[in-house]
Specification:
By secondary structure, this protein is of the alpha/beta class. It is built from 13 helices and twelve strands. The protein folds into two domains: 201 residues, NAD(P)-binding Rossmann-like Domain (Rossmann fold, 3-Layer(aba) Sandwich), CATH 3.40.50.720; 97 residues. Helices cover 40% and strands 16% of the residues. The protein starts with 6 loop residues before the first strand and ends with a helix. It comes from Paraburkholderia sejongensis.
């Protein structure tokens, strides 16, 4: 593995960006965090002397080029509102134009299982057909295709790292965060069902070291890879463990597809969740043996330990009055 130059995290303020930044800092590497607003970046990274904070306009190629200047590798984590997924390909097209103009050598897209559509049998490897049957899956596939087509163009190397659903301490955008908050406070938790189907989750703090390693692994580029969780677990079992840590029985309110449709009459987010509810009834489980063969054994946090850390973090946040 070769040592690389400076890394930029585009769309850094979210939980994945913070996990990767922690790994870069632990490896003694300087990095740049890039986002639309300085305040959340300052809050998340302002105390790390290795972090350089830069703001940008992700729909402006000149702003992208300026944000990318002097970077060797970019890790793309840019999110869009769930009801505006059509922005993903357009933003990626502008990003690729800006970063290649800046002379960036490598780009890593942190991706999802959406482009696969329904699994033909779990766990799936990287050679599984990409046949998305949802709008969001098609938009993510279009984004990926732009990234992979850019590999070898104008000195740029690219890869996609696909993740399953994620969870971790105080990660508000996680499907499971409300469950941990409910367990820690002794209140009823709202969940998206069904909750008795085995599902795969990756503990988000585990991804940082993997991504940091990929930034300095030249042979990884030109394709996509999977990073799996530690097997499957049902949401009901996660709830049982979470509430048991607080000495109580689970208190759950489960919204299935029909309830999501009703809630969607009042909430754009709930309306958008209906389309992706197939992942709760027909989950996609990833096989990451190819990545393990490339990088060696990957350290992963067990569900038992991950759940314990999440409940503890939610309990501490509640004590501080931040939940």
């Amino acid at each position: 593995m070769q040592v690389t130059g400076k890394v930029g995290l585009f769309g850094a303020a979210g939980a994945a960006g913070q996990s990767i930044a922690t790994a870069l800092s632990a490896a003694g590497r300087d990095y740049r965090v890039v986002g639309r607003s300085r305040e959340p970046l300052q809050r998340a990274f302002g105390n790390d002397p290795r972090a350089e904070i830069v703001t940008w306009y992700p729909d402006d190629p000149r702003s992208i080029e300026a944000a990318a200047a002097g970077l060797q590798t970019i890790i793309y984590l840019v999110g869009v509102p769930y009801h505006r997924f059509a922005q993903h390909p357009a933003l990626m097209e502008k990003t690729l134009a800006g970063v290649t103009a800046a002379g960036v050598e490598r780009l890593i897209l942190i991706g999802t299982v959406y482009p696969y559509g329904r699994a033909r049998g779990n766990p799936i490897r990287e050679d599984h057909p990409r046949e998305p049957h949802t709008f969001k899956g098609r938009m993510r596939l279009a984004q990926e295709q732009l990234v992979l087509a850019a590999h070898g163009q104008r000195g740029l190397e690219t890869l996609v790292l696909r993740l399953p659903d994620f969870y971790g301490p105080n990660i508000e955008r996680s499907l499971l965060n409300g469950l941990f908050v409910g367990a820690a406070s002794g209140k009823r938790a709202q969940m998206i069902g069904p909750i008795d189907v085995p599902h795969e989750f990756v503990y988000l703090p585990d991804i940082g070291p993997v991504v940091e390693t990929l930034t300095r692994t030249p042979q990884a580029y030109g394709r996509w890879w999977h990073l799996a969780g530690t097997g499957t677990i049902t949401q009901r079992e996660i709830a049982r463990q979470a509430y048991a840590l607080m000495g109580t029985e689970p208190k759950l309110m489960v919204a299935g597809k029909s309830m999501l449709r009703v809630l969607g009459l009042f909430s754009p987010l709930m309306r958008e969740l209906v389309e992706m509810n197939y992942l709760m009834t027909e989950p996609v489980v990833l096989d990451d043996s190819a990545l393990t063969a490339l990088l060696g054994p990957i350290e992963k946090t067990s569900y038992q330990e991950g759940i314990r850390r999440c409940v503890e973090a939610a309990r501490e946040a509640a004590a501080r009055g931040t939940n």
